[in-house]
Structure formats: structure tokens, C-alpha cells
Amino acid sequence: MEEQSVIHRSVLLSLVTWLTILSIVGCQSICPTRCLCYLIRMPRTIECSRQGMLVFPKNISDIVEHLDLSDNLLTEITDDINRLTELQYLNLAKNQLNFLPSNLEELKKLTRLDLSNNAITNVADIASISQLPTLTVLYISRNPLPNLKGLTSEVLQALDAGHCLITELGNQSLSGLPALTSLNLVGNPLKNIQTPVSESLRWLDMSDCILNYLYPDTFSQIPNLEELRLTNNPTLVYSTRHATLQHLKLKRLDVSRCNLDRPGLHGLPALTQARLSHNAIRLLPDRIFTRNRQLTHLYLNANSLERLNASTFQGLMKLQTLDLSANNLVEVHKQAFQNNINLKLVNLSYNSLHQFPDLAATFLATLDLSFNLINRLKANSLENLPMIVNLNLRDNQLQALPRGLQSTTLKVLNVQRNRLVELHNSSFSELPSLQKIDLSGNRLTEAMDPVIFRNNPDLAVIRLEDNPWRCDCTQLYVTFEFLTDPPVKTTGSSLICQSPANVSGYSWEVACFDAWNVDVYHSKDKTWGMVMVSLLILVVLCGSVVSIKHTMKIKRRVVEQRQQLEMAERERLRLLHRRITTDQRRCTYITISNQQRLEEEELEELDHPSEPRINPLELIGPPTYEEAVQMPRLVHSMDALNEISVDNSALRAMSSVDNLRIKKKRTRRPRKRTQSEDDLLRREERRQERIRRERNNSNSNIGEQPLNTNSRNPRTSLARRSRRHSAVDESIESGSSKDRPRPQTPNTKKKKRRQMSRNEHVTDDEDSDVQTFNSSRSVVIRELPREPRSGFRKSFIERET
Questions:
Q1: At residue 227, what are phi and psi to the nearest 5 degrees?
Q2: CA 338 to CA 308: how far, in whole Å?
Q3: Per residue in 767-781, pLDDT tens?
Q4: pTM for this prediction
Q5: If 299 and its partner were Cys, which of 275, 581, 615, 763 is the partner (CB 3.0–4.6 Å)?
Q6: Are 292 and 274 in contact (CB under 8 A)?
Q7: Which pLDDT score is estimated for 526?
Q8: What is the spatial distance between Cα 579 and Cα 576, in angstroms, rounded to a whole number?
Q9: Measured between alpha carbons, how far is 710 from 265 in angstroms, rounded to an integer?
Q10: Alpha carbon 791 to chain centroid distance?
Q11: What is the average pLDDT value for the chain, to the nearest integer?
Q12: Is the pLDDT confidence value at 782 over 50?
């Protein structure tokens, strides 16, 4: 059942809505030409302003609530307007209307009517407004109305008749408006006010008129008047030495830009706000405001005040705002505000104060001392202002802020456009509640140390623009980082460099971009940089330790290897010494045996002469390694031994033992490093001739041998034997000599190779003896086996055996 009822209600609501819409559409006419109709939204509005209409439109909808026909060319309104029964606001301003229809009874909902900027010359032409039962606001400003007498409306509350031609406000001017509470007569040529009567009027504005003098009882018949505005009446005076304007309920009075020479407020005991600015008040007598005990806002700015006495504001116990700006004050008495216990704001700007005023105001929160001549500020200047919150010292001549300016409540400090050159580290140390400071427009050149604000944890705004900054990027970086790090305390673009010349006019950030990018970069990554450097140092240390350990290990290994090599060398030398000793013994034994055998052979030769034997020198074989080490080097090259070898059986002895002796005795010629071809050819010819001579001698000796074989002369045999032994001894002695052979050169080797022949042997030395070979014996050319560099080698005698 409930669901069905809900459904029925929704259906009925939709039907009613549609019927309403259809009725509206059916009732309304077509929207007027060149108008904007908003009939669906609330309030239902039709706007036809600025369309150049000459007549009132006929097809306006009957349900319209706001109708705007302003700024057209209408000259009259027809009675057809009465069908707009829903109309609440009608705007006919800026037309050419001279009157209203005589019948407006049907506009029962009209509350506001605007007839300003028309051509209405008499209030009788708009007398039909009295037929409007709900009209509360009427605008008839800027019409050539001479007065308001005859205008009637039982319900009208606000009337704007400004900038008309009203010259007088008399006793009967407001009698037809019993409900009027607000009257605007701004810009009328009012000269005299003759005690107007209105029991309901509360707000009256007669600014920009030509009022001359107000009598004390001028507004006595307006008992409920609360606010009176008389601004910009250049000749107005309402107070004299003996009398002043009086009203018991007036609360707000504005007589700015008049010709007052004294406040004259003692006849207004209920006054709370008084604007006396831009007058000619030069002196404030003592206790002049004692009867204005309700006064909370007093504006005495732009007068000619020269000084304030100790009791000038005595009695103003509720005073909260006092404006004394733009005067000629040179000094303010210390006790001037002592009795104003509720005073919160004092404006002393645009005066001629040379010192910071020593004020005693218990609850003063805002003190404006801007545009003065203050050049010094003491550290204890705020000690008598325990509740100070905002201190404005803008446009003074301060060259320095005191050290340790003390205030536990100060939040805003403005020292803009002074002459500050530097800031001390303790300038703001005693201002723990500071939230905003303005240092712009001074002469600060050096970057400030953020330590200055170490005791200001709540500081959120620091203004530093318009200072001749010297952009030393290294010093500015810390300050810029402090100012721009979140929360941002100033705008970076407002910090402009003045010097050096190459960055003048640029902001800090632009001027120091290159310098800061490198520093700002590693400064932000300082932690990671330190970590990386630490890791690198650790790696280097570990690598150094490992390298040192490895080096010591290698050194120990080298020392061990060296010790092993020394031990092996000592063992090898010991074995070599043993081997040499053994070889010496063996050689001694062989030598003794050979001597015995030679003696036996010689005895046999003596007994049985035989064929000639081989020269004993031929029996001497190659030396052993130990013998070769002790033997001197050969004077000439022995490369020929690597190319040829003669069969042992084919070797013949040298010509005689005497030749060996001669060879031993010859002096060694220095070897020439270079020889010419002619010398070589001559040497070769001499060698060939010497070889032929030796061959001939050998042949002759062979032919004579048989003759000698038959000889049995023992002396001859003994001489031959002695010669043989002496040759052997000399050969042995020559092996142990200390003469060393000269080094071989490639040229000598080439010469030796050219001198080699198949059937003959020639030495390098042209003075040496030539070995002769038996032509009947065979010569085998082969490469001799190379002697090992070290070790034991079998002796020639052992190989023979």
C-alpha cells in the first residue's frame, strides 16, 4: 500500500509540474524582440536593456518577476504594465521618462523601482508610487528634482535622491515618508538644512554638497539618526568656541575634507566612530574627548597636528584604532596613550618623528611609523609594548638594526626602504615569534648568514628585493638555499644582482647558474659522494694489503728459489771439483803411461829403425772442459774447425819443433778491424808461395828419409828425442799461458771461408806456421761436433784409446 501511495504521489507531482509548465507557456506571450527571457529560472527575468526601444513592449510575459528596460529611449510607460502582477523589480533607469502612469495599483509585489537618470522634474509626476503597497526602495537620482516635498509613500524605506537639484531640506521635506530609514542626498546643491523631521530616519548622507554651517539643533528632529556623512563640504563648520553640533544617538560621523579647525565631538556622547581627516585641526587640547567615552575608532589623519600632550586622549577607555598619520608630529609624549587600555592600532606614519616614540600602550598590537625620519632604534624600544605584533618602520632612515631587539610577541617587522647596510647576527635573536620580515629597498650588498634567523623558527616570509647585491656566488649559495628551500621564504626572481658589471640586472639564480650547478650538484649528493669515496678508499686499502702480501709471498718464493739455486750450485761445484780431481788423477796416470810407452817406442826405434813416425804434436787431442777453461783464448779465429775436419791418420806434424819455439816467441800484432782488398790479395799470394815452398820441402824430406833410417847414430836419435820432448813441453806450457785470443768479427769469418780449400789448410795469421798435409792421404771435410758449453768432455787421448 505504501509503495502504491508513493507511486501515486510521484505521478501527481509530475502531472502538476507539466500542467504548470503548460499553463505558463500558454499564458505567456512571445518573448519581446531583442530581449533575453529567463522564465524558467528563478527569479523569472526579462532583460531588454540597451535595445533602443521607444515604446514599452507589449508582448512581455505576465509571469515576469525582474524586468530590465534600462538604457533605452522610452518616453512613457503605458497602463499595460498593470498586467505584470508578478513583477518585483522594475528597472527604468537611463531613459527619457517624464512621469509614471497614474495607475499602478496592480503592481502589488513591486519592491524596487529604479527611475534614475530620467527627466523627472517634479515629484508630483511620480506620485503614483504611493499606490505600490510593497515598494521599499526608490531610486530617483540624477533627475532635475528641486526638492522632495510632496513625495509620499507609507512603506518606502530607502530613497536615493543624489545628484539632483535639491537645494533645501526643510521641515516638510520628509513628512510624506514616515517609514524612511535611509536618505541619500549626495551631490545636491544643498546650502541650508532647516531642522528636517523624520522619526524613522537612521542613515543620512549629504556628502559633496555646499553646506556652510550646521546649527547645534539641526538634527534634533531626527532622533533616531545613527550615521551622518558630511564629507567633502569644503566650507562646512559645525562647531564653534561656544557651541557645537549635538545629537544623543548619533554613532558614526564622517566629516572628512571639510573646514573644521577643532574636533567638536563633545556634543555627541554616543559617538563610536569619528572621521575628522583632511581638515584644518592643528591643536588637540587636553581631555578634549572626555565626553566621547564610547569612541572606538578615531581618524585624525591629514590634519596639521604638531604635538600630542599626555592627556590629549584621556577618557577614551574604549578607543581601539587611532589614526594620526600625515600630520606634522615631531614628538609623541610617552604617556599619550597610557589610559587607552584597549588601544590596538596606532598609525603615526607620514609625520616628522626623528626618534622611535617611547610609548606606554599595554595592549597595542600594531604600530605604524612608516615615512618618518627615524634614524635610530634602541634594543629596548619595544619593552613598553608587551603585546606588539606588527611594527612598520618603512621608509625611514635606519642605518642599522639594534643588536638584540627584544619582543616576545612581534610577528611582522617591516623595515622596507631604509638605509640598512648590514645585519648583525643577533639582530633577530630576541624575536622568537617573528613570522615575516621585509628588508627590501635597503643597501644590503653582502649575503646574510642564515645563522641570523636561528632563533626564529616560525619565520615564513623574508623579502629582500631591491637591494644592491654583490653577487659572490660562493657566499650567496647558502643564503639562496636557505631562502628557497621549502617552505619558500622569498621569490628567487626578486633577488637581483647589481655588481659585478657582467651580471648586473640578472637574478641570483641566473648569475650564479654555472657556479651553483657544480656546487649545488655535489652538495646535494654529498652523502653519496662520501659513501663512494669511502668505498674507493676501502678498496684501495684492501688492494694495497693484498698487493703487499702477494709481493712478500713472491719475495719469499724468490729467496727460496735463490737458496735452492745456491745449494744446487754448491752441489754442482762440489761434483765438478770431485770430477776435476778425478780427471787430474786420470790425466797424471795417462801421462805417466804415455811417457813410459814413448820411452819404450824410442828404445824400439833405436833397436829397430822403421819408417818415420807422426809428429808427437799430432798425438795431442782436444783439451777437456776443465783444461779449456784454464787455457788462454786463441789469438785468431777457429771458425774453420766447424767447417773442415782432417782424418787423424792424415794429420802431419808441423815442420819442426823449432817453428813452435819461434811461434811462441813472436810478438802479437794488433788486429786490424778493416783491411783493404790489395792487402788481402798480397797476403793470399804470399800464402800460396809459402805453401808451395813447404810442399817442396816436405817432398825433399820424404826422399831423404830412407837415408836416415839406416843411421844408427845414437846421438842423433837422442837429439831428436830431446827435441820432441821439448816441443811437447812447450805445447803444454803454451796451453797454460795467460794470453787470450782476440775476438772474432764477421769480416774475419768471411775471409777464412774464402781461404778454405779442399786439399789445403791455411790459418788466418800470415806469420803463423802452415801445417802440411800429405797429398797421398785422404782429407774428409765435415763439421766438427760442437763442444758443450759446460760439463765433462772426453779427452782426445781417451777417444783414441
A1: -135, 130
A2: 12
A3: 434 343 343 333 444
A4: 0.62
A5: 275
A6: yes
A7: 65
A8: 5
A9: 188
A10: 80
A11: 80
A12: no
What is the DSSP secondary structure assignment for residue 777, as one 8-state letter? S
Q: Rounded to whole angstroms, how far apart are CA atoms 14 and 142?
A: 50
Placement of cell 788466418 in the chain: 764
Residue 479 near residue 447, CB atoms below 8 Å: yes
- Say if strands 168-169 and 192-193 run parallel, antiparallel, or are unpaired: parallel
Phi/psi for 487 (5° steps) reads -75, 135
Are 336 and 310 a contacting pair, CB within 8 Å? yes
* Residue recorded with cell 659572490: 472
Largest CA distance in the chain: 205
Amino acid (one-letter) located at 239: S
Cα 95 to Cα 49: distance, rounded to the nearest angstrom: 10
Residues near 530 by Cβ (< 8 Å), separated by ≥ 6? none
The β-bridge partners of 331 are 307
How confident is the model at residue 32, as a pLDDT? 86
Q: How far apart are CA 159 and CA 112, in angstroms?
A: 11
Is the pLDDT assigned to residue 284 strictly greater than 70? Answer: yes
Residue 182: is it exposed, middle or buried by C-beta count within 10 angstroms (0-12/13-18/19+)?
A: middle
Query: Which position has the grid cell 784409446?
Result: 801
Strand pairing partners for 37? Answer: 46
Q: Please state at what angle helix 677-709 crosses helix 746-755, rounded to 10 degrees.
A: 50
Residue 268 CB coordination number (10 Å)? 25
Domain ranges of the chain: 616-664+738-801
Q: Which is nearest to 270 in space by CA: 245, 295, 239?
A: 295
Q: 36-38 and 45-47: which strand pairing?
A: antiparallel
Cβ(756)–Cβ(644) below 8 Å:
yes
List pLDDT tens digits, range 614-653: 454 444 456 667 666 666 655 444 444 444 343 344 334 4
Are 357 and 333 in contact, with CB atoms under 8 Å apart? no
Q: Which residue bears the cell 644582482? A: 497
CA angle 725–730–733, rounded 5-degree value:
125
Q: Which three cell numbers stand for residue 426?
A: 643577533
Which residue type does 30 have? I
Cα→Cα distances 512→279, 383, 417, 473, 614, Å: 54, 42, 26, 6, 109
Strands 112-114, 137-139: pairing is parallel
> For residues 142 and 186, what is the distance between their CA atoms, to the nearest angstrom?
10
Cell numbers at 101, concatenated: 502612469
Q: Which helix (H) or strand (E) holds 532?
A: helix 526-607
Tell me how far apart the alpha carbons of residues 69 and 20 are, in angstroms, rounded to a whole number: 27
Give CA–CA dist 682/690, Å, rounded.
Answer: 12
In this structure, what C-alpha cell is assigned to residue 620? 795431442
pLDDT tens sequence across 504-539: 999 999 999 988 886 444 455 567 778 888 888 989
Do the Cβ atoms of 228 and 254 come closer than 8 Å? yes
CA–chain centroid gap for 625, Å, is 84
Return d(Cα 206, Cα 638) in angstroms, integer.
148
CB distance 419 to 399 below 8 Å: yes
Q: What is the pLDDT of residue 111?
A: 96
Cell triple for residue 741? 785470443
Average pLDDT (117-144) is 95
Enter the C-alpha cell of residue 1: 500500500
**Straight-line distance from the first to the last Cα atom of the chain, in angstroms, rounded to the nearest whole number:** 152
